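User: Modeling request: complex.
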Amino acid sequence: MRARAASFGDFKCAHCHVIVSSAHLLSGVNNRNHCPYCLWSCHLDLYAAGDRLSACKAPMKPIGLTMKKGRNKYHPEAHGELMLVHECTECKTLSINRIAADDDPGTVMAVFQESFQLAHQVHALCQEYGIVILRAEDTKLVSTQLYGRYVEIPMLNLT
Amino acid sequence: MNINDENDIGVVFRKTLGHYTVHTNGREIDCSLSSLIHKQLIFPTADPTSLRHRVQEVHEISHVDAVAIGDRVRYVEAGDGRGMIVEILPRDSKLSRPAPVPGQRVFEQVIVSNADLVLPVFAAANPTPKWGLLDRYLVSAEASELPVLIVINKLDLAWKTPGLEEEIEIYRRIGYPVLLVSAVTGEGIEELKQALQGRLSVMVGKSGVGKTSLLNALQPGLGQRVKAVSQGELGKGRHTTTHLEMFKLDFGGALVDTPGIREFGLWNIAAAELAYLFPEMTDYVGQCKFGLSCRHDQEPGCAIRKAVMAEAISPYRYQSYMNLRSEL
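Assistant: Request completed. Predicted assembly structure:
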């Protein structure tokens, strides 16, 4: 298939309107996917991460967290990588995305806590995509992944 | 000497630096170019015949070379097989690109004029097809209102570019004819001959895709030089052909062989009209919420984006549109 499109570079967040740098040095990822402040994304990818082939281009809301299975054969008990789940506000497409190095951990935690109230239909849709949204009982796992150790965090408010 | 004589009209078949080979009545005349053609005379009114014939200004013309292959020209013959081109007759069509010359002004380079068919040539592999480049050729051909026949050469190669069939299908669905050929085995050559018959066609494509090999397969007597693709740097070609030349075909028609083109910019195409040059998008132009002002990027209610989402337009072609639009 065709070569990937070049990175779009720095952008203005469609949700919180902050200018976001796409520098690899800050994010630690090749394709800056979402705003590190509000974690909202934009529906740009179609077939694969970074292909930038989607014509939808609508904002994508962070709706929860999931775990991507790790391939570390030397550390089989490792849970894998914590990922953000985004839902397109227009076409309702779901995508999972890596958490970047400079993503605000407080906001990630708030997204996680807000996902406890997700509607049953959203969970069913996630299941169609093969995505398992982390629930309240996974708090310890999420906290360990985000902060390196278990930290008890009160319920946060995303507004 | 009467330069208005119809006998002094010929077609430019070959050009090298400062020399133009003009064919007329079965003869070849080696012509130079009159200095008058390098200049554009500016008259006081739009119609220079309506008033006294007085030149107001003299401008240098905005072309790299005023004469293109395929041009019908009027010439003055010196008698020893040489001549001088004094007038270029009006063109029916032209395929142009911005000349890749460094400098502040961008000049138009007419690759071929009076052509009837454009043949973008790509290889099934080695070198890997650049579909974005194909989209550029297609847009240029659409802008010149020239029909296109996409040719995929080197079918004989065992390893083909992954996804080749799917890509070909995208263009066939739009309505572009695609011909799969092999200059080595002769597969598809008869169909290609039928398509070229009686037309002036021009082959464009990257270096190393086998344009000259195709020419040799079409008409073995031509004996054009061919080389293998270099293996050193990403299988890029070696620029076998270094000048433009038109070849008369025994079965009728003529074919212009061009040197490999790695970059192909769009000439004289406005950003607002670009969507019209993608045939699959034309039905949706003007249907957007913002009408003709829509850039088809992030505007709400864009009919073209909706069509891409509904799979009526290929996302790859839409991406090509966005890439080309960003250059205009």
